[in-house]
Amino acid sequence: MPEVHGTTAWTVMKGFVEEWWVVILVLAFPLAGFIVNGLWGRRLPRPIVSIVACGSIAGAFLTSLYLLALNIALPPEQRSIQVTVYPWLEAGPIKIPFALLFDPLSVTMALTVSGVSFLIHVYSVGYMAGDDEFSRYFALLNLFVFFMLLLVLAGNLATMFIGWEGVGLCSFQLISFWFTRERAAEAGRKAFIVTRFGDFGFLVAALGLLAIFGTLDFGDIARAIHENEMVSPWWGGKVAALDALNKPTVVGLTLGTLICLGLFMGAVGKSAQFPLYVWLPDAMEGPTPVSALIHAATMVTAGVYMVARLHFLFEQAPLALLVVAVIGAFTAAYAATMGCVENDIKRVLAYSTISQLGYMFLACGLGAYIAGIYHLVTHAFFKALLFLCAGSVMHAMHDVLDIRRMGGLAKKMPTTTLTFWIGGLALAGLIPSGLFSKDAILHAAEKQKALWALGLFTAVLTAFYTTRLGVKVFHSKPRDEHLHEHAHESPDIMTIPMILLALGTVAVSVLWMPAFVPGKWAILPEYLRVVLGEVHEPTAQEALQSTLWAVGAGLLGLIVALLAYALRPGALWNLAKVLPWLYQLVAGKYFVDEIYAALITRPGRWISEFISAHFDLGVIDATVNGIGWLTAKAGSAVRRIQTGFVRNYALYLVSAAVLLLFYMLVRGLTMAR
What we know:
- The structure is a single chain.
- The protein is mostly helical.
- The protein has four domains: 1-175; 176-587; 592-640; 641-673.
- Helix content is 71%, strand content 4%.
- It contains 28 helices and five strands.
- The strands form two sheets. A three-stranded antiparallel β-sheet has the order 1-2-3. A two-stranded antiparallel sheet has the order 4-5.
- The longest helix has 48 residues, at 592-639.
- Residues 7-19 have low confidence and may be disordered.
């Protein structure tokens, strides 16, 4: 039976749960769905495959909901419960167990991941109905959710790393799901390779923590830092934890700063921040529900969760936190500019995801971890909703992605239009819950004027490209009469999840309302306070002022977009006519892909081709072939001894005996002297 830490808390829970297995059940459900559909899915009827896939995620969600109820029933100081499933790696004093951690942060993430994923699974039943690889798709989708749940429920960095790499592997398989299409296969490879750069930093940083603390357990590291315990650093001897983290290195940074920057490097890759964001727009080559899953509540939020989980470590490295905030703010504005000129409906939302993740990192870099997690939760709902709406439009438009061929779909697709605007206005920060979560981040940034200004500028751009997208797709004149004529609303299996996500988008606003709202609730800050610390609550006047700035920025972007694309299309608002050089720069995605190709991809290919042509063939192959030639020649020479004639073998035997007697005679005479 697994070892459970926090006996008091577990004793209380035992009144509700008799066995430890309910803790592991959250992971067991999606893993079971993967095994069933992965092994037998091709032999099962599609309705059974759908039931297994969706039912497994529903089971994970309900179990997470049950654990939330149990967790809330405990006193706040007893809400952190760690279950050691089994001892995993043991080498001398170092012991790394396979451990799961249930505390307010992990339970919040598990609920978000499983809840949103369930609706995406249900939507997928309709979206992928005609695909030949139906069972493989759902098997991979279940495995993806399993690894993401493992990542957020991990009790130490080693267990987290399994989930971290697992979601990377599954994203590669799902992005390149239609691998017979060259662009899809290339996009999958790109995502896998680019995120490996970040994962290298994550792994090195984890090894650094292991060298200092002798453990990768979150609780043990936090306690060692908080109590400044004695640790055994890799350079030998006994020093206090803070002294070890503050030890200078040859590059002029402290060891703690380097470790935090390494961890953030992993977050930059996984959460698609500058400069490792380039894989995410290309990830749109996968099925649209996959885009919703990756971009909403799963893989791309892993970096934000990791920084929030290790906040106690980042707080010992102010420079690293500043880097997190600056990269986040810059990425938010930078990606939003590209969303303003993109014409692919899914890529607009992809750049929006990169931008909103930048908001989350901005919050974490400023120490507003709960604001970052709150935006993560709200973003999971409205971004999943927007991607599903995009999939509904594609379903109606025969997989057309170019918004320049769309228009006038509001009458044809009323449910999709309504749910899109609910998600879009939340993304723009004009209705709850996007308004409240974005406002919390902007309020946290008010003391850092440059970062606050970038955040506010991003809010303007976000409202602009969201309104531009909605007007061009749903309300402008149809641009392709043939496509428009055959457009239709999606079936209920697709629209019902969209409606539920729209309701959820508004409903999660009650988790944290601004101070000026009468009878406001601060459910999430109160629940996460034990893990992430206290929240600085603004006064009602400060909160109202901050909200007015956020709403004003959103309204400005919305009005400009309406003028440019609805009221006076083609007027001076058209950037391509006013500033063509700037439009070309932004529309060309700042030519970052071309720069990477020139500096990394092509030189790497040339080097590999040179090595293959010269070193590989001239040295490696020549050495191997030479050994083979020498062996063959030696074999040919030795083979002549085996003639098959008995008289020859008798001669060999007599000759050997004579030589042996001669050797013994000579040796005896030598010893006698």
